[in-house]
Amino acid sequence: MDDGGSPGKIKILQDQFGALSPIPEAVQDDSPSSSQPRTDNSFSRKLKRAALMLNLFSPRRLSWVSNGQEKVELLATELESLRSELADLEEREAYLKAQLEHVDEVVRSARLSGYLYIRTRWMALPGEPPPLDDTEVDDWLPRFVVLQGACLFFYLLSTDLSPQDSTLLADITEIGSLPMFKRVSDEVYHCFYILTRQGLRFECSGSSKTQVESWLSVLRSDCKMRLPDGSAETQH
């Protein structure tokens, strides 16, 4: 084989398969079965055929000159892999563009938006026993909450194109404050809740008192709610 040639190619050196050297007379057998030296062309032809078959089935290589200097060679399978990666990158770019457009639309059209810690509870229906007291369970999860139009949306992330949950403002029957609590980090969280006519209770919390008060004020205003003690809310 020629190490300087292209990979995967087999070359036959003709002078390696010439006529066999004559056997010295001193070691020749005098028996009638011995034959005179001859050229073994059959073995050479078989080796050439095998080399041709290997070359036919070896991976086809594609080559071109880059910048007029460097010669680049790629297998056909490598080229297909690059095309697939390029298609994936284009799809990823389109998805990220859609996410940015969605965030921009939310910021422009939402009355209020931001991250809050949320957990949900179902209220007991008439005749059902009260739910177990699980107020000490730390199952608060961050959600990106958006008040847009007549609906409240709960997204897992601000870049998500579809909300994880939502509720109509018309379905909200009660909005009120909840006691403050401390998490593992000893940071104080301010809380409020939203109760729907279906019995679903959204408990919301945040470390910023101003943020929580803004949500309470806007939601009560949009839903035209009264404070838990029955008095009307004072607009500032």
Question: Overview of this structure, please?
Answer:
The chain has 236 residues and is α+β, with helices and mostly antiparallel strands. The protein has a domain at 110-128 and 137-223: Pleckstrin-homology domain (PH domain)/Phosphotyrosine-binding domain (PTB) (PH-domain like), CATH 2.30.29. Helices cover 28% and strands 28% of the residues. It has 3 helices and 9 strands; from the N terminus they run H-E-E-H-E-E-E-E-E-E-E-H. The chain has helices spanning 41-57, 76-109, 209-223, and strands at 61-66, 70-75, 112-122, 141-148, 151-155, 165-168, 172-182, 188-196, 200-206. The strands form 2 sheets. The chain has a 7-stranded antiparallel sheet, with helices on both faces. It has a two-stranded antiparallel sheet with strand order 1-2. Strand 4 (141-148) and strand 5 (151-155) form a beta hairpin. The longest helix is centred in the middle third of the chain and has 34 residues, at 76-109. The N and C termini lie far apart (91 Å). Residues 26-37 and 232-236 have low confidence and may be disordered.
Structural key phrases:
PH-domain like, seven-stranded antiparallel sheet, two-stranded antiparallel sheet, 9 strands
Task: Give a short summary of the structure.
With 236 residues, the protein is of the alpha+beta class. It has a domain at 110-128 and 137-223: Pleckstrin-homology domain (PH domain)/Phosphotyrosine-binding domain (PTB) (PH-domain like), CATH 2.30.29.30. It has 3 helices and 9 strands; from the N terminus they run αββαβββββββα.
